Every structure is written in structure tokens, then in C-alpha cells.
User: Fold this.
Amino acid sequence: MREFNKEPLLKELGSREYDVLFSLSRCSSGWLRLNELNDHVLLTQPSISRMVDRLESRGLVQRKTVEEDKRGVLIGLTEAGVAVQKKVGRAHVEHIQDIMETALSDEEMRTLLVLTEKLQRSVRGN
Assistant:
């Protein structure tokens, strides 16, 4: 994580903040309840609430009331949030690629791919 956090764009945003934006970007509806968002990130409920407050004040996320349940609140990305997530995401992927291409041979990369696919199948129960 220390190496990944060296990415210059993560100094602007922070890896945990990026994690929130990334999780929201992966949601098919574009919206998650706070407790659902908490299932996707490695933060406690109070920490995620404060993080969402900070991201909202920066214009990166927005809240809306759940139509069926006026007490429920959904969190989603703003246009600015989408743009920042994509910008940081691209840089993050390139940084990971640079690290992996430097450290691993082509054969080791193929082995890593086979192993990660096996882990994914196991987690999904396939």
C-alpha cells in the first residue's frame, strides 16, 4: 500500500477517499445506501459517514432521499466525482502496471492471472 500511495494523484484525494469513489462507480444504479457503501470499503461506519461528508463538501458525491423510504439516504457520484475517479483510476492502474511489469516476468504474470482467477472463482463459489 505504501508503494501504491506514492501515486501523485492519491496525494490530492487519498486512497480511502478513492476507494469510496471507486465503489460508487462500480455500482450498477450509481447509488448506494451508506450501510451498503460501508460493505465495500475498509472503514468503520462513523469514519465512512465523515468521509462522505468531506467528499460531499468537495462536490465529489451527492446525497438523495430514497423515494420508498424517506428516512433512507443514497450516496452517488457527482459529475466532478466521476471525472476525479476516472482520472485517479487511470493513473492508479498505470502505476500498478509499472510495478508489476518491472517485478514479474511474462510467465510470472500468466501464473498470477491463473491464480487470481482461481481465487475469484473460489470467492464467488464457482
Q: What stands out?
A: The chain has a mean pLDDT of 86. Residues 4-124 form a domain with the Arc Repressor Mutant, subunit A fold (CATH 1.10.10.10).
